Amino acid sequence: MGSRDNHLWNHSYYVKVRKLREGSSGSVHLAVDLRYGNQVAIKFIPRGSNSIHVVAREVLNQRLCFHHPHIIQFREVFLSTDHLAIVSEFAAGGDLADYIDRHQAIYKKASMTESNALWLFHQLVTGVNFCHQMGIANRDIKLENTLLMDLSERPLVKLCDFGYSKDEYQGSACKTLCGTPEYVAPEVLARESYNGKAADVWSCGVVLYTLLTGTFPFRDPEEQRLSQVALLQRLFPRILTGQFDMPTTVSKECQSLLRAMLTVDPLRRIPAAHILQHPWMKKFDAAKELAQLQKAARKPVAKGWSMQTDQEIMLLSTEAAKCSSQPQESLPY
Question: Smallest Cα–Cα separation from 144: which of 130, 129, 163, 131?
Fold first, then answer.
């Protein structure tokens, strides 16, 4: 494999296994840490790219949620010749979109049971609520950013990707139009100052709806063949008015929670902490099993987990903002 295809070709202890996915800001690769034999996920962002300026915010906000059982754990940042790399723990079960695809292939139906959806959703909201308690809004919650630690029917769920996140104790109010169209809240589309935590709850509502039905609440499946522009022209008005079909196959308690999360007025939308107390969240008596899962997930910090300071991370991201013209060694701190 040539060095141009392998961003880790000259690294002293990370060895590439394969590319996991390609995104708008960079690519994510599976690698092995030769020092300890564990697998990690490494996100590579080209040096000098427009995405570099948010890297420090992404990493520092994720670090604030360190060692929570439902947040993907940050490991370290390093520079290579052409990229800035963010190393995190690896989720072997893929994401919620993969889970839905597997579920549909096995059971030959789009929807899943409320009990199964609750198992996954409860963990997501627990992670989101912790972020909110820490003053952080993720602002890009979606199926693809909700990772699974194994391929079992009832996996451990972890939230990832803090690239759009906002710390309410640092910087200005949320004003940026960001996120993925199918999950974006109406107040975000309005392009005015908004509460990022309330926008997260809306996105969680979209995730729950999709788990239960296999479809997005504000998209018509028959519009799949439309161009992206035509699709958005139909999607955004439905989001702005909260126009969606409530699934009739789910319980009244579940309908109540969906309605509370997909409320157009963010001031009337249920907060994440209240979601965890909603009757539907307690309906299937999974609390004991979930508590055992969370306890097992609270392991001691693994060997090799970096203790980089905020200043070191800021320095690396500042350096990465410059386009590199001179070959250099990978620089882990």
Answer: 163
Rounded to 5°, the CA angle 46-51-56 comes to: 100
At 191-241, the pLDDT tens digits run: 778 899 999 999 999 999 999 999 999 998 888 788 888 888 989 999 999
Structural domain count of the chain: 1
Task: Quote the domain boundaries for residue 233.
Answer: 96-295
Domain contains 183 = yes
Is 161 catalytic? The answer is no
Which amino acid makes up residue 239? Answer: I
Reported as a single tens digit per residue, the pLDDT across 271-303 is 999 999 999 998 877 767 777 777 777 665 555
142, 100 Cβ separation under 8 angstroms = no
Amino acid at 165: S
Give the other-Cβ count within 10 Å of 164's Cβ.
Answer: 21
Joined tokens for residue 177? 């139009």
Q: Of 33, 95, 140, 150, which residue is the catalytic one? A: 140
